[in-house]
Amino acid sequence: MFLIDTSRNGQPVYNALVNQSLDAYLINDLHLEGHGLICYINDPAVIIGRYQNAYAEVNLNYMKEHQIQLVRRTSGGGAVYHDQGNVIFENIVVGDTSGFRDFQRVGAPIVDALHDLGIKDAEVRGRNDMAINGKKFSGMAMVKKGDAYAAGGTLMFDLNGEVASTVLTPDIGKLEAKGIKSVDARITNIKPYLPAQYQSWTSEDFKNYLLCHLFGVERLADIPTYHLTDQDWAAIDARLDNLYGTDEWNYGHNPGFSHYVSHHFPIGTVSFNFNVENRHISEIRLFDDFFTTGDPHLIEAALVGVEYSAEAIKAALSKVDIEQNLSAVSVDELTALLMRVL
User: Fold this and answer.
1) 2-250: CATH number
2) Of 202, 231, 308, 336, which residue is the least packed, with the fewest Cβ within 10 Å?
3) pLDDT band at 241, cuts 50/70/90?
4) Keywords for this entry (predicted)?
């Protein structure tokens, strides 16, 4: 394993738009063979999943008033808030993709590092979370391209919880499905669980400890490291200018169709926003926080123009590989969700 140094001109980069775009460059373009790792800290930002609706997940007015960035990542998953109380880690794996979708493998080294700090109740749990005493301190996400994938997560070390709970507007159905009354009730920071001798640690201190523990060294200087070059940064800048830094990518378009249905399944939330004209689906958008290597837009395309009836919707969905392009949700379940409206 080797570290990929994401500093620029010897200075750390805190711009979330830049940092969140790195995985796409690293797995698509740079393509360094083996197991790399990036680790960084962001300025305040809301990070949403690739197929989420920003207008439903985020308090946009509050976000803009407080100069919080909105950043859409290239992988699936849900919305999270970042500030300088967070540490973000991401494994960049090229060649051996056997670990893709294995969140236990991604989270175990982090949990081991916390155990060695005396936080024995840290664990990997559920689909893609890490928790202490049942409270989530990390959500993980993955994205795969060919023979490479990126897999990592956000570690809430000393997050401003008040801002997080205000700027995020999670789907109520998701909270109810988990028996949770609010965002605050289900999250925690790592710092309160640290032994007394480590309570003065900053996020940077914690990041440095984590890196040394993950690589089994005493000093950061002893970690095998690839340093991003000027050529690398030129390519990253071009991707930002053309896609990842644009409002079209990060905000997307709020369809604002007449009908909205949403349900939290055991493996994630699916939402449909659609119009019905003359008893046929005229327009439809699908939003989700699943991790998929397929194309959910194929499901949308299959439903446009279909009669708004259970039989017709089921027939249309049966022509699409739902598991490949969404996740392990059945045609019957999606049909029932769509038929809630009329």
Assistant:
1) 3.30.930.10
2) 231
3) very high
4) ATP-binding, Ligase, Nucleotide-binding
